[in-house]
């Protein structure tokens, strides 16, 4: 598991390595995805995170850079059939994905169907790990009570998740420091934690890192790193 970052010794390089450079808008174009990948390679972000239809393009664009393609599945609702999520995971891995971010079934969790939630995550974790990838499970914390966040975290970890993640960015709220602290306390050294949703500035990113996040998902990654370098948000991609 990645160690939590020493925020007081943060450098542009170490910050970039903790950022998933993200473009998940449904209207994203091929040119924007290519630009995202080029920026991910230039800044050495943790990955370039895209929707499944762009997996092949992103993997090809990033080939040889050392920066992996990240892809979401069951996104953004998490309410797909478990078999559909499994198939999607296998397909994006074969197409070149390394990081796979899945949305757990929030409705099942809220219905007390915890065995079904864990079984779904566990099946996908096995597929992802067999394919050489890592799995991040999106809890969609804005829709959960604190007790449900704790349960979702425990189920995800027990099922083999490499990361537990706050949000899709498509719900009513995104990452909060309180949720990251709660998830960090549950995860301990068993699992990494990813903050995503509404992280747009260096201050936002540092708040999440201080709260215990190992990874941050953001569309404003370029602006965030440039802010640490002393630049301005004018260099941002504007996704």
Describe this structure in words.
This protein is α/β, with parallel strands linked by helices and 239 residues long. The chain has a single domain, classed as Alpha-Beta Barrel (TIM Barrel), CATH 3.20.20.70. Helix content is 44%, strand content 15%. It has helices at residues 12-16, 30-43, 55-62, 82-94, 106-110, 114-130, 146-159, 177-187, 202-211, 221-229; strands spanning 19-22, 47-50, 69-73, 97-103, 134-138, 163-165, 192-196, 215-218. The model is unreliable at 233-237 (pLDDT under 50).
Explain briefly what this protein structure is.
44% of the residues lie in helices and 15% in strands.
Order of helices and strands: HEHEHEHEHHEHEHEHEH
CATH architecture: Alpha-Beta Barrel
Predict the CATH topology: TIM Barrel
* Shape call: globular
The value of Rg in angstroms is 16 Å
Stretches where pLDDT is under 50 for at least 5 consecutive residues are: 233-237
Number of continuous helical runs: 10
Count of extended strands: 8
CATH class: Alpha Beta
**Range of helix content:** 40-55%
Sheet having the most strands:
8 strands, parallel, barrel
Average pLDDT, to the nearest integer?
A: 95
Per CATH, the superfamily is Aldolase class I
Distance between the termini: 30 Å
Structural class of the helices, strands and pairings? alpha/beta
């Amino acid at each position: 598991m990645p160690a939590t970052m020493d925020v007081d010794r943060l450098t542009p390089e170490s910050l970039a390595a903790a950022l998933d450079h993200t473009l998940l808008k449904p209207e994203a174009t091929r040119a924007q995805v290519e630009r995202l990948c080029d920026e991910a390679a230039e800044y050495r972000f943790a990955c370039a995170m895209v929707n499944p239809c762009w997996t092949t393009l992103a993997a090809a664009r990033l080939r040889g850079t050392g920066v992996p393609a990240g892809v979401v599945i069951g996104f953004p609702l998490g309410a797909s059939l478990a078999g559909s999520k499994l198939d999607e995971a296998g397909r994006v891995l074969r197409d070149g994905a390394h990081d796979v971010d899945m949305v757990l079934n929030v409705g099942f969790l809220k219905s007390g169907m915890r065995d079904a939630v864990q079984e779904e995550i566990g099946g996908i974790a096995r597929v992802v790990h067999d394919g050489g990838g890592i799995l991040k499970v999106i809890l969609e914390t804005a829709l959960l009570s604190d007790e449900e966040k704790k349960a979702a975290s425990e189920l995800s970890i027990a099922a083999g998740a490499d990361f537990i993640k706050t949000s899709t960015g498509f719900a009513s709220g995104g990452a909060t420091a309180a949720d990251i602290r709660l998830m960090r306390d549950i995860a301990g050294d068993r699992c990494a934690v990813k903050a995503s949703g509404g992280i747009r500035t260096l201050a936002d990113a540092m708040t999440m890192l201080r709260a215990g996040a190992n990874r941050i998902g953001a569309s404003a990654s370029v602006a965030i790193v440039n802010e640490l370098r002393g630049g301005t948000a004018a260099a941002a991609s504007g996704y």
